[in-house]
Specification:
alpha/beta; 6 helices
Length: about 160
């Protein structure tokens, strides 16, 4: 991850994201509402829109979040693939059943970093209104690294 590129994106995108994302954060447990992410953690969320990972990048502004992203996004172009890597993208080859991304995630978690994963594996189609089946990779990451799982939900209406 290129810290310079990541912080450039965070700084230049801060004002526009205030107008685009209407963040409303609700906690199930009100006692933990002021809790900050300390140490390693696995953020697990449903996937509604393409910009879900950007929303969480600004929701947890004080931490660098490494996001598991499908190969489709990395194949949009070499420059875009480089950009995704710079802002913390971890490439996953879904069709090739390549699980190399798991070892990258475990290494990051063992270093105290935050990994974000969308276990549905893809964006839902227009006719799909319920959550898709979760893939178990985030459970494996938690078991191997000992990092806590932080479940989040977005309704996709930014």
């Amino acid at each position: 991850m290129s810290k310079l590129v990541l912080w450039f994106v965070k700084i230049t995108g801060f004002i526009p994201q205030l107008f685009y994302f209407r963040k409303k954060v609700y906690y199930v447990n009100k006692n933990e509402s002021n809790r900050r992410l300390k140490g390693s953690a696995i953020i697990v969320s449903n996937h509604k829109r393409l910009f879900d990972f950007v929303l969480y990048m600004y929701l947890f502004l004080n931490r660098d979040i490494y996001t598991v992203i499908g190969e489709v996004m990395f194949n949009k172009g070499k420059l875009f693939g480089w950009f995704l890597k710079c802002i913390g993208g971890i490439k996953v080859e879904r069709d090739a059943y390549d699980f190399g991304f798991l070892s990258k995630c475990i290494n990051l978690l063992n270093k105290g970093k935050v990994v974000e994963i969308f276990p549905e594996g893809r964006l839902p189609l227009k006719e799909e209104t319920t959550l898709l089946e979760f893939k178990p990779s985030f459970v494996y990451l938690a078991l191997e690294s000992g990092a806590p799982i932080i479940p989040l939900y977005t309704n996709g209406s930014y």
